[in-house]
Design a protein that fits this description.
The chain is α+β, with helices and mostly antiparallel strands. It has 18 helices and 23 strands. Bound molecules: iron/sulfur cluster.
């Protein structure tokens, strides 16, 4: 049974994965990774893993479940070493319930062991796997991460150096990837030539850390230094930090959904704190789609900063109208049929006293299939709301993602086939407005060319092979 309890597939883009890597002699490395993974839990709740090494031996623990479910105090005691990597996983390829697909993945290169963990998605996995199989490489799992490990392994043996192996693998891999990899003595981290998925570099005294988000640096007391650049490879070892441009950068295409929804509000990307960007998105929404109302509420958690921004800009009071059952959607316990019928109530509970007799502006980050928004609006009306005006702080999601975010097939995306008015009718809102691409980009302080915006405009920064595209594109091709 799938470990999700509201629907078989959640009605919003699903997070990708979180990665963490550290080289820190003298520190309790497994404990630091554990806390780093805690901070990255929102990026993946299906499995968690930590690999550490002490210069000679590598130890790995990974399991299906949340970080605190996978690691007990006694486990951390057995994970001894000064170098390590960690991972929280949401599956975008391969089965979500297979231990083999949990990360880090291990492989051997000669007498060395390597462990690898990855955030993103390769678009040429099948092609790469087929060519590796033809060279006699065997695969145990169905993930692109294992293909990466095998590629690095294969080319390291050919080149005689791990960095040479990584460089060669990066030349062949197409898609989005932010990777942490380790040997018994060092951590390597590298990012795809378009920089689609984030990867931050931090410093803890004399030691170095890489992590998907800066909130994972903050939690261990590390200082954020900079983002890794597109196509950059770093090595963290006794020699300190070594960096190289392993493959030429092809541009900057950071996933816009990191700003809209995925990343934690206290994380920083492109020199911008996401909480501030989300507040500005809400303020822009208030300017572009004003409405008469009594109360602005956000759909927790990611809708809250934008709701605050909307309220400030419009002068309509902000209030809390929905309480979130924070952890229920992340459990592996399947609900009874009675509970399942409660649907959205398992996650969000309306605060009747705040909503009754009020005309609401409800701010949310996105609408994917529309089912959850429709249930939410019904719930708010049941709780006594007089009117529900939905304000969405991203443009309509019309195109599927191939870069590690689970946004369904194009057919399942409600905005791919319906006009805004048709979506409004479907969800049952009194009014509905989306933020424009320009307003969304401006709110981040960046430029259009710094982002992947493909799920909004169909303009994919990394070409998608026809065979892969066909799996998700049930409708027409994007217009030029
Ligand atoms: S297609 Fe959308 S979700 Fe995927 S990387 Fe681009 S902006 Fe992010």
């Amino acid at each position: 049974m799938e470990p999700r309890i509201l629907d078989q597939r959640p009605d919003r883009p699903e997070e990708a994965c979180g990665v963490f890597g550290i080289y820190a002699p003298g520190e309790e490395v497994s404990r630091l990774i554990y806390f780093g993974l805690h901070a990255l839990q929102h990026r993946g709740q299906e499995s968690a893993g930590i690999a550490v090494a002490d210069g000679h031996t590598m130890t790995l623990r990974k399991e299906l479940g949340l970080v605190p479910q996978v690691f007990k105090e006694s486990d951390l005691g057995t994970l001894d070493g000064f170098v390590g990597i960690g991972h929280t996983r949401y599956s975008t390829t391969g089965s979500s319930t297979s231990w083999e697909n949990a990360q880090p993945m291990l492989s051997s290169i000669g007498s060395n062991t390597i462990a690898l963990a990855h955030n993103g998605n390769l678009v040429n996995t099948v092609e790469l796997r087929d060519s590796m199989r033809a060279s006699g490489v065997r695969f145990r799992s169905t993930t692109d991460s294992e293909v990466m490990v095998s590629l690095v392994d294969h080319f390291t043996q050919q080149h005689g150096s791990i960095r040479g192996g990584i460089r060669e693998a990066m030349r062949l891999m197409r898609g989005a990837y932010s990777v942490v990899m380790m040997t018994e003595e060092a951590v390597y981290a590298f990012r795809d030539p378009n920089g689609v998925r984030p990867l931050a570099l931090g410093r803890l005294g004399e030691n170095w850390i890489v992590a998907s988000e800066t909130c994972a640096l903050d939690i261990v007391g590390a200082e954020f230094v900079r983002d890794l650049g597109p196509g950059e490879l770093v090595k963290l070892s006794a020699a300190g930090l070594e960096s190289e441009q392993a493959v030429p950068a092809e541009g900057k295409s950071l996933c816009m959904f990191e700003f809209v929804y995925f990343a934690r509000p206290d994380s920083q990307m492109y020199d911008c704190t996401l909480h501030e960007a989300r507040q500005r998105m809400g303020a822009a929404m208030a300017r572009s789609a004003p409405v008469e109302a009594d109360l602005v509420i956000g759909v927790p958690d990611s809708g809250t900063p934008a709701a605050i921004g909307y309220a400030r800009e419009s002068g309509i009071p902000f209030g809390e109208g929905l309480a979130k059952n924070r952890y229920v959607g992340r459990t592996f316990i399947s609900p009874s049929e009675t509970l399942r019928q409660q649907g959205i109530r398992l996650k969000l509970n309306p605060m009747r006293h705040a909503l009754q007799g009020r005309r609401l502006v409800v701010v949310d980050d996105s609408i994917v299939r529309g089912n959850t928004t429709r249930k939410l609006i019904a719930l708010l009306r049941e709780a006594g709301a007089l009117a529900v005006h939905m304000r969405i702080t991203s443009p309509p999601v019309r195109w599927p993602c191939f870069y590690g975010i689970d946004t369904d097939t194009q057919q399942q995306l409600i905005a791919s086939a319906k006009t805004v008015e048709e979506v409004r009718q479907f969800i049952g809102a009194d009014s509905l407005a989306y933020l424009s691409i320009d307003d969304m980009v401006t709110a981040t302080g960046g430029r259009r060319e710094d982002y992947c915006l493909a799920c909004f405009n169909g303009d994919y920064p990394v070409e998608i092979p026809e065979s892969v595209r066909a799996g998700k594109m049930a409708l027409e091709e994007p217009s030029a």
